[in-house]
Specification:
This protein is α/β, with parallel strands linked by helices and about 425 residues long. It has a domain of about 200 residues: Rossmann fold (3-Layer(aba) Sandwich). It has 20 helices and 14 strands. The strands form three sheets. Strands 4-5-13-10-11-12 form a six-stranded mixed β-sheet, with helices on both faces. Helix 7 links the parallel strand 7 and strand 8.
Length: about 425
């Protein structure tokens, strides 16, 4: 399997190059050269398949002989010792897909652990070293830190916006040590993301060290996120209704992954792009004009992205046709007041506790289903509510138990490096620590 750049479709690189270099030299984004079609038989028989089983079959179809079959099977089963269950609120109508059963209790464990397994394999073959540089608005950093902790040949530097992540999220970034370093940036997530992109484009840094990304700009962070859409479909197809997915969206890697799975044959009636007040994509779906804006701070902080990197991939999957994209994707946005109201309403009505990001996804699903179509709706539950304990408790007025893995982190001291938003500061630090 080769990959091409969205900026130049004639540019082709190997699977290993796309994985370890993350971003083309022309600053586009990598996409698979071919999207294999998984036949109807595959989707008929997946109900009993685990996340790891599905990951193996889809990976085999994508990558063919690039990784030996036995090795690939071992890699995905080690990456995914957990499942992604669908929980019914109203069975047959509205559900949540729980994506927080991995070690960092967020959906990004799926992509981070898959990437770590794949990178570890190729680095072992070549005896090379890689420096992973990643920006986070909350959950990516924790998943990457835990997924890559102690992996030989890999050093990780995480940039996060000071004061804009929850206390538990920050602890996941700043307390692990070893091969993980956290840089606390005096700015927004968009600033952090811009700094990472500038680093990948800087010739001095790239001559000195091999930089890679674990953000969703890396296609191998995005591909595995499609696995849980397939797993979810397998759990609800018994209802015999058209399936609708509502995805809480920030950088739009998660939604793009679902669309990629759809292009591989996954039967999806509709995708819903649910955002907070950072609404560049829902606005685009209304008027056909894409206008990035400075990010707005909200209680669903991991989605505070004013200029989503994966918008390019999303439109590319629909041949850059606004009409085709709008025919498959609806977009809605919600403010903090609506988010809080949904969290409380779901708790009172169903006894189910949601984080604010999940609540945004639920709101999008509820808005779409008001049309009256008889669909089976799935809202993606992207993080465990304990990661936003204070906020959630203030909304539902009920204690939220912290899982033991997170509670242990709370007692560890924070270690971060505080830097500004100027690229020279980041570059100097990276050059000195190579």
């Amino acid at each position: 399997m080769n990959f091409y750049s969205t900026n130049d479709t004639s540019l082709r690189v190997s699977m290993e190059e796309a994985l370890l270099r993350s971003m083309p030299k022309d600053r586009g984004l990598y996409m698979p050269e071919k999207i294999p079609f998984m036949g109807a038989d595959f989707f008929r028989r997946i109900s009993d398949g685990s996340l790891a089983d599905i990951a193996f079959e889809v990976s085999s179809a994508l990558f063919g002989p690039s990784i030996p079959t036995g090795k690939l099977q071992d890699l995905v089963h080690r990456a995914f010792p957990f499942d992604t269950p669908v929980v019914g609120l109203e069975n047959g109508k509205s559900h949540v897909l729980e994506l927080f059963h991995g070690p960092s209790l967020a959906f990004k464990d799926v992509g981070a652990r898959y990437m770590a397994a794949m990178m570890g394999y190729f680095l072992e073959q070549s005896s090379q070293e890689v420096h992973i540089l990643v920006a986070t608005s909350g959950d990516t950093g924790g998943a990457v830190a835990m997924g890559f902790l102690g992996v030989p040949g890999i050093k990780v530097t995480i940039l996060y916006p000071s004061g804009r992540v929850s206390e538990l999220q920050e602890k996941q970034l700043t307390t692990l040590g070893r091969n993980i370093t956290a840089i606390e940036v005096d700015g927004s997530f968009d600033d952090c993301q811009a700094l990472v992109k500038m680093a990948f484009a800087d010739p001095d840094l790239n001559r000195q060290q091999r930089l890679a990304s674990a953000n969703s700009i890396n296609i191998f962070r995005l591909i595995p996120q499609g696995f849980y859409y397939v797993r979810a479909y397998g759990q609800v197809k018994q209802y015999g209704k058209p399936v609708v997915f509502s995805t809480p969206s920030g950088n739009f890697g998660n939604l793009s992954a679902g669309v990629l799975a759809h292009k591989m044959g996954l039967p999806v009636h509709r995708f819903i792009a649910s955002t907070n007040l950072n609404r560049a994509v829902p606005t685009y779906l209304e008027n056909g004009t894409y206008t990035p804006n400075p990010s707005i701070e909200t209680i669903s902080n991991a989605m505070d992205v004013g200029n989503p990197s994966n918008f390019v991939r999303l439109t590319h999957l629909f041949d850059d046709s606004f009409e085709e994209l709008k025919a498959s994707v609806s977009g809605y946005y919600f403010d903090d007041g609506q988010t809080r109201e949904a969290m409380l309403d779901v708790y009172r009505q169903y006894g189910y506790v949601m984080c604010p990001h999940t609540a945004v996804g639920y709101l999008g699903l509820r808005r779409y289903q008001q049309s009256g179509e008889d669909t089976c709706g799935i809202a993606l539950a992207t993080a465990h509510p304990a990661k936003f304990k204070d906020l959630v408790e203030s909304v539902i007025h009920t204690p939220v138990e912290i899982p033991p893995a997170l509670e242990e982190l709370m007692n560890r001291p924070k270690h971060s490096i505080r830097l500004g938003v100027g690229f020279d500061e980041i570059k100097d630090y990276l050059m000195q620590t190579a």
